[in-house]
């Protein structure tokens, strides 16, 4: 298929801006749609209005404190960030994690994937304008949130990892294991019922079929990652490279139609795989301690770690110097998926455009990493000018 | 005509109007609490909060100057809508059939069109900040296009309203004329008299098809999901109403409820032949019709995503076809 791209020289009469505040967007971002007769010819997404400078705050912090801070990067995949940050330190310090702790990390990670995918489905249905479906999915998600709250102590910031294992709070006793298994049974049935209902709703299908087309070659060119990439037919899942998942048997789900429907079905099918992994982890949960705190702090060079989080590939890197973090870099999956969001919305009706963005599972606030400041006259402000302008 | 024969009907009309306004303010609550919330397995808001208390609450809110090239005209539009709906309501009152020359279908269609045109004007007069945030180019990535004419979200809403006037509400107007074809008159008095003699239009084939077509048009005219393209949350947000605040927003809430009641009465008059005469048994039937239509509408809204052109055009075309078919049947039999 020919690449969907409006030529730079092409005269497009109208620009429609949405954001930075818009009810279809969960987060602040600005999208410029260049439209002709309500059909999007080109799109430009701008983020950067929710910059929090996490990496800058991490600079010079003790490693364990910095790890805790990474949990605050994202409210949806909070555990994934703390897991990857801890994993980075463990890699540099050559810490061996007890097997029971690895299994608990996998359980929490997969529960997080479940809640993230269900949130995605709910948000997608909300942008579709189908409030009932959205509410039903939030109702299904509630079980997962309760389980995460039970294990991590919170419904949102439930990160369980610390260097050498997991927090004592996250130990799984028989009662917790029983509740997780019951939760998985209930969730599996409810998701299956929902999927059945969804796939037999012809009106909903007419909205999502063929909408937001993102071809495989374009997805690869734009370095898209995670389920968004797999929905274009690319069988790539970083979990297959992670040592934590070595003992688990699961399928990498892919879809071929490359549209919003494929993205939605992708999440549903991946949810079943997550349930499968959680059941395996519970069944084979090894005995033993959940944390090994006998490691020693040493100085390291830049350490890098990639993991598969619910939305794609998450990257953390930093060096350790005197037990403190130096040169931290965090890259969230949405950073690489922004191009796909822009591309997918081209050629669609403007009502579908937000859906095309949402289909790539955006998490812009987590992706805000750098900003430049301009004054009203469009002059770039450097640090010295900023110091003169800002009263601390 | 004596003083009492003039006064009593006038008082009846005023009491019916107050009753209609009150019911209109309760209906949004019924839709949300007893239909949508039940379907979505949640508790839902109190019945009185969505319409009644919302309209009272807005009255006490601080008014802001709308971001509009003609703020006065923009703020007058909700009042114009209310007056248009009020005129339709007055046309439907049986007390007016005898002497009000406007108690006919052409006048009703005209007033409803005024209500629709108000959305076009409101959309083009509203310039909210919702589509004007961060109006500068992306320096970091490099803006792909610069210096284009920037449209406001309400401009899309306005052009969509125009489309709705041209063909969107066509099914409703077709449905209105089915009883007229059957009774051979466009005057409401004659249509009611015909149905009292021959039975309700809805029990005929043409009338039954017409009722379905009317209902589709009813949802389109009320801008209700899935037909709410002029105020879709996924793109144009509140559309023409975006800049309305305080008492003007209150007018919007009241007018919507009033329009629901008025269209319900219109259905009762045209398809069942029961005009809203106070202190008669017919008013109970009218009330039932007024409540049933929004309840069915809320069910349809709860089970459907918002329509885009791909779904909207076929639905309108099919409804229009059914409307023409019903008129054909009514004319032939």
- Runs of chain A with pLDDT <50, length 5+? none
Oligomer: heterodimer
**Range of helix content of chain A:** 40-55%
| Biggest pleated sheet of chain A | 3 strands, antiparallel
Q: What is the approximate shape of chain B?
A: globular
Mean pLDDT of chain A: 90
The Cα radius of gyration of chain B reads 21 Å
Global outline of chain A = globular
Q: Mind describing the biggest β-sheet of chain B?
A: none
Separation of the first and last Cα atoms of chain A: 55 Å
Q: Element order, helices and strands of chain B?
A: HHHHEHHHHHHH
In total, how many beta strands of chain A? 10
Query: What is the succession of H and E elements of chain A?
Result: EEEHHHHHEEHHHHHEEEHHHEEH
Question: Would you count the extended β strands of chain B for me?
Answer: 1
Beta fraction of chain A: 5-15%
Structural class of chain A: alpha+beta
Can you walk through the features of this model?
The complex is a heterodimer of chains A (392) and B (333). Chain A is an alpha+beta fold and 392 residues long. Chain A has helices at residues 54-58, 63-70, 78-93, 99-128, 131-152, 174-199, 202-208, 216-221, 227-230, 260-283, 333-345, 350-358, 364-367, 383-389; strands spanning 14-18, 30-36, 39-46, 161-162, 165-166, 303-309, 312-321, 324-331, 373-374, 380-381. In chain A, strands 1-2-3 form a 3-stranded antiparallel sheet. A 3-stranded antiparallel sheet of chain A has the order 6-7-8. Chain A starts with 13 loop residues before the first strand and ends with a helix. Helices cover 66% and strands 1% of the residues of chain B. The two termini of chain B are 41 Å apart. Chains A and B meet through strand 1, strand 2, strand 3, helix 4 and helix 5 of A and strand 1, helix 5 and helix 11 of B. Strand 1 of chain A pairs parallel with strand 1 of chain B, so a sheet runs across the interface.
